[in-house]
Write a structure and sequence with these properties.
The complex is a heterotrimer of chains A (368), B (371) and C (260).
Chain A (H helix, E strand, L loop, with lengths): L1 H16 L1 H21 L7 E7 L4 H12 L3 E5 L4 H10 L4 E5 L3 H8 L1 E9 L3 H22 L8 E9 L10 H28 L1 H7 L4 H30 L8 H25 L3 H19 L11 H7 L3 H14 L4 H30 L1
Parallel strand pairs in A: 1-2, 1-3
Antiparallel strand pairs in A: 3-4
Chain B lengths: L1 H16 L1 H21 L7 E7 L4 H12 L3 E7 L2 H9 L5 E5 L3 H8 L1 E9 L3 H24 L11 E9 L6 H32 L1 H6 L5 H31 L7 H25 L3 H18 L11 H8 L2 H15 L3 H25 L5
Parallel strand pairs in B: 1-2, 1-3
Antiparallel strand pairs in B: 3-4
Helix pairs in contact in B: 1-9, 2-7, 2-9, 3-6, 7-9, 7-10, 7-11, 7-13, 9-10, 9-14, 10-11, 10-13, 10-14, 13-14
Chain C lengths: L16 E12 L2 E12 L3 E6 L5 H8 L7 E6 L2 E2 L4 H7 E4 L11 H11 L4 H14 L15 H14 L4 E5 L7 H16 L3 E6 L2 H4 L4 E6 L2 E6 L1 H7 L5 H9 L8
Parallel strand pairs in C: 3-8, 3-9, 6-7, 7-8
Antiparallel strand pairs in C: 1-2, 1-4, 4-5, 9-10
Helix pairs in contact in C: 3-4, 3-5, 5-6
The chains are: A alpha/beta (368), B alpha/beta (371), C alpha/beta (260).
Chain lengths: 368, 371, 260
Amino acid sequence: MKQLFVFIRKEFYHVFRDRRTLLILFGLPLVQILLFGYALTSEVKNIALVVTNASNDVLGQQLTNQLQASAFFKVQEQQLSPTEIERAFKKGHIKAALIIPSGFGSDFIKARHATLQVLTDGSEPNISKTVLQYVTAIVQDFQRAQQPATSVAFTITPELRMLYNEEGNGSINYVPGVLALILMIVCTALTSVAVVREKETGTMEILLVSPFKPVMVLVAKAIPFLILSLVNFAFILLLAVYILNVPIAGSLFLLFMITLLFIATSLSFGLLISNATNSQQVALLISMMGLMLPTIIFTGFIFPLENMPLPFQWISNLVPAKWYYAAVKSVMLKGLGFAYVWKEMGILCVMTILLLTITVNRFKIRFT
Amino acid sequence: MKRLRFILQKEFRQMFRDRTILAMMFMLPLIQLGILPLAMNLDVKNINLAIVDKDHSTYTQKLISKIGASGYFKIVATAPAYKKALVTLENGTADIILEIPASFERNLVREGSQPLNVTADAINGIKSGIGSAYLLTVIRDFNQEIRLTGNGQSIAAPAMIDMASAAWFNPYEKFTWYIVPGVLVLLLTLVGGFLSALNIVREKEIGTIEQINVTPIKKWQFIVGKLVPFWVVGMIVLTVGLLVARLFYGIIPVGSLLLLYLLAAVYLVALLGFGLLVSTISNNQLQAMFIAFFFIMIFVLMSGLFTSVDSMPTWARSIAAGLPITHFMKAVRMIILKGSSFKDVSSVFIIEGLFAIGLNALAIWNYRKTQ
Amino acid sequence: MDPVINHQPPSPATAETAIECRELTKKFGDFIAVDRISFRVQRCEIFGFLGANGAGKTTAMRMLCGLSYPSSGHATVAGFDVYRQQEKIKQHIGYMSQKFSLYDDLTPLENIKFFGGVYGVAEKEIRERSHDLVRSLGLDREANKLVGGLPLGWKQKLAFAVALFHRPRIVFLDEPTGGVDPVTRRQFWDMIYEAAEKGVTIFVTTHYMDESEYCNRVTIMVDGKIEALDTPANLKHRFACDNMDEVFYRLARTARRSDS
């Protein structure tokens, strides 16, 4: 036991001496939380909309004013020809144009039927769709407001409720995603590089000829990263709660257990990679390209899984982070209990056992 | 100048002997452009809807079939009570619950107004936002319809405003058209950024940099010698990428190819300057990888690859404006999708040019031949 | 193992100065790596620089090569100041570090061409001389194989040849024969003598004491200071020792620091 302690202390020295890497390990979640939480809003606002009002009547002006009052748009009133609108699109100055034709007001009042034209910049399809939704909603409101009071009958008033995120907090689904990502970096990338570095410098041989059990070498390697991960976990939760105001809706203990399980899975992964490779560069490439990218893509925290082609959805089941993400989302954001996450936890358990068995077997074959 | 030629010759030799780089040059564009645009799909469709219909009237039947016909929604569950429907939201099968109260139709006719409850799982902001907006639009349309065909009541047909709309440059509003040029930029940035960041530091680790530092080579010659081969790799990656975009996704740049290449040429110089700067700062490859990863991640997230820069808060927008990738991303989309001309993107040329000069000057300045 | 060619440096009175140091010092924080060393090396001399690991040999050499700024003191190399004219110094010296530092992924010929080119040797000359050089090193068959696959001894000979290719006035060799077998070491020293005969000043660090006997003069560094500087014969005489090993041992055992 004392030997193990000595060993772990040595590993801590390795980890804490590289200040820059350590700094980045804590800078990374901070920046990610800030960016995801504030900068990468899915909301659409400040959209540059040009209103070309050819009507010169009260109604056209009223509609323009209503658009102007909305926070979604930055309205510029300008008389632009279609070619001028195209030029403005090409310059990237505007995202949408509303054309109010001449005689809009009289058409509406006399003919009881008026037409508006909305042109959007389809090169950004999500914005273009949202803009159309917003303009349509404002125009419909406007239209209703113009009707005589009698026809307000048959009014359905939808009441919208945003569950789990009443304040419409930027994008809280990024928090579990950032957790998964950071834990993956610490446990998998750093762990594998740490072991491979000892192989490269030849110190691994020295450790293995010592009376210390080979498997213990791996355990000692893993422990500093386990602790570093837990510190990072706490750090990210604090950031989420105090900076993003994302409350932890469910049981903190359950969240901790799930995280511990995921750390175990990631560490096993890291040890397996270090076992299979002999150079730091390969270990880095595998863990960065082979694991980071799948983690970002296949957890579904940025891009919805159900939009992906089916084979991708199948592959995603093999990514541990996907299950971790789902479980954390349920517990942390939705406040659900064990009954909702046992399946995810079970899958992570099986993955860990599988990875560890392979690693330990390979390790024995190589060194006994 | 003659020395520079020898340096370039050496760098090119080493590069073309490196299998990893060759693989990256041709495989990465194929893999990334083959997979990412399919995976990075923020297109909101197939919104899963759970319906609690407590009324079961003609109106609710009509409303439900109208929702089904809209093409945006997949009705995944019908539940008798909100509590039951909530389970589908909790376990993720449904995104939105539509609850129609009992005697909806009767009360609507009698009292002239009735509420409807829409509950969205707001954890995913994009889906809940656009999804609920779609649903509200459908409900509003339905509302309009029943007013016109009003139930026996004599209503003067209300005045109508017709909305004619068109999405220019991408009439079907395909998300791939938007994301493919973005992934192309991502690709250039990843390849150029990582390769250059890992290069000089590798010579430091092997020790060959010592042998270079003791020669009378000029600092700028060394940096330029490192930069040019990666620049060529970048241009090849761009070419392969454009081919993939054309063959896989049928995306053919509307604007001038020459303009696109010229802009990429300037951008690459700026990006490689950044990578080489990281390389001169770092002590070992692990560090270089992490520093590069840290910054490239910020670049990618802030660049507007999949979220709009305009919608960001002011502070974030000013950070985004301070990154070369943001301007390049915007300009590439403009050229490929909208056919913007040189005049439209001339400011981007100036900005990227300044970045290129600044970052490379920093890299040269930071590279120390004498400690 | 006696040197094949018995090299004699010019007499001190007539010789030009190749390297001159006065009170040259390098500090890293509180640690004084090189402590006020002073010496003069003549043209064509083979100047040995001895010391235990961590004595400050490499640090001193790096300052003279323009790889590192001195903390204080003065030094000129080939007549150029080490503070202000490092790039001029670099034009006139060759350098071979203790770690093999040619490019593993280039062939011997490509390495020669590259470094020749970087030093500004005319292309025509590179083409003419590089093939002769490869032949004289006995690397004809390996000329187009990657350097990474060569045995260490050949790599070191190649590195030395590269360091000499641009005809520098002074060559700095940092433990050039570390890890090399005795036969190759012998060949290596033949090459050193040959270069010295042609007028190149050799500045070499080593911890093989038998090699120090081949030098015209030897400096022994202990804890950053120069403890002795003379011809091997004079040193043996002064310390009443039979060989340089004993001389070194007597001086070095007072050392307080070593990097091992």
